[in-house]
Amino acid sequence: MLNGKSLLAAPAVLLALAANVANADVALYGQCGGLTYTGDTTCVSGAVCVYQNDYYWQCLAGTAATTTTTSKTSTTTSKTSTTTTKTSSSSTTTKTSSSTTTTKASTTTTTSSGTSTGCPSTMEGYATTNGGTTGGAGGSTVTVSTLADLRTAVAGTTAKIVRISTIITGDGEVVDVGSNTTVLGACGGGMTGGGFRVKKGTNVIFRNLKLYKSPAPTDLIEIQASTNVWVDHNEFYSDLDNGKDFYDGCTDINHGSDYITVSWNYYHDHYKTSLVGHSDNNGDEDTGHFHVTYHHNYFRNLGSRLPSLRFGTGHIYNNYYKDIFISCIDSRDGAQTLIENNVFENSTQVLMTTTNGGYANPVGNDWGGATPELNPGTFTTAPYSYSLEATTGVVSDVTTCAGTCKITV
Ligand SMILES: *[C@@H]1O[C@H](CO)[C@@H](O)[C@H](O)[C@H]1NC(C)=O
Ligand SMILES: *[C@@H]1O[C@H](CO)[C@@H](O)[C@H](O)[C@H]1NC(C)=O
């Protein structure tokens, strides 16, 4: 996601596209897209649909690539320079400060409900390592709407995709998810009053789930002694009305878990967000584990732990922190972190290192005027390819694409 404008605009046009198939093509200078537009989106021959603003796309003369592409051309990597090419406008951006190269055509996905977005849907980060994370791919799909059915459906290690069609009210106890499982929310599906746990498991995916208000001691998602978990495009929240210990964590990772990616989630209105490593005294089990990636998450109006990382190795890039009132990244107990191109706004304690004995290599961040605690460590290059976007595009892309109902599931 290298250009906020194209990203914002693409969904609107494609929404319009989905709603209209039979009209005559739009004449030169006519409207062909926009957030509330429902007319035809195909321009007459010789014209292309060009973004003007979020509410107005116009047919202009030319033969440049249009936004009606439905193919996803993806990423190549090289370690020398970065070139960004997008097809929804004519500009090309080249930068040289990054070690990752991304070539991305305008990505279009169409959801089962007929809506479309241009939001990215590809796994990156540590969940791609150690053999990768496929969840229940290849297994059967079952849709559930009750707590009892959910518990049954996610149990066991057989490959399976479990789709939640509504908000299921939990009973305060964890719902244990077995290995080789994908848990998906239909748009608006998820759980409240309880949470998921992966315990001594591997290969689990959580996507598009709306998860909120789980009183302690149950986290919304807990990953315990488990490997290869991807937490992507979910929404997590509670409220700030009940004190910081009333609800438990949103995404807590503990007991030597490893190879986890937490991406494109929207976390808001909560105190203790994501704790990696539950205790200063658990180094024997945790040291050498907790390889975690956090990217493109939208953190808004939260207390702390974004994340708090003990002992492990954290790659934290392209996240947007807004109105964080206690602390943001807390690298502690010897943890090594690489912190790239994040944006912090109206947030305090943006980066803690020396206070709690951790390390950080920050590159390209916009601290929003706050002062990070610096303590350079040894983690300087991530061991996988990834699409690092320019800091200037982060706010737009993250606020547009983080959370639920943004991708096809
Ligand atoms: C997960 O699935 C793989 C491949 O189907 C299988 O070999 C493995 O035993 C499963 N994992 C567990 C923990 O059962
Ligand atoms: C900054 O964040 C605080 C705490 O979340 C919030 O109360 C305040 O309204 C924010 N200020 C601005 C200017 O956004």
In short:
The protein is mainly β. It folds into two domains: 30-61, no CATH class; 126-401, 3 Solenoid (Pectate Lyase C-like), CATH 2.160.20. It contains four helices and 33 strands.
**How are the strands of the largest sheet arranged?**
8-9-12-15-18-21-24-27-30-33
What is the CATH topology of the largest domain? Pectate Lyase C-like
Number of self-contained structural domains:
2
Give the overall pLDDT as a whole number.
Answer: 82
Largest sheet: 10 strands, parallel
Helix fraction, binned, reads under 10%
Highest CATH level, the class of the largest domain: Mainly Beta
- At CATH's second level, what is the architecture of the largest domain? 3 Solenoid
Query: Beta-strand level of the residues, as a percent range?
Result: 25-35%
Which geometry do the CA atoms define?
A: globular
Instruction: State Rg.
Output: 21 Å
Bound small-molecule species: 2-acetamido-2-deoxy-beta-D-glucopyranose
Number of strands: 33
Cα separation of the termini: 19 Å
CATH homologous superfamily classification of the largest domain: Single-stranded right-handed beta-helix, Pectin lyase-like
Structural class: mainly beta
Secondary structure tally, helices: 4
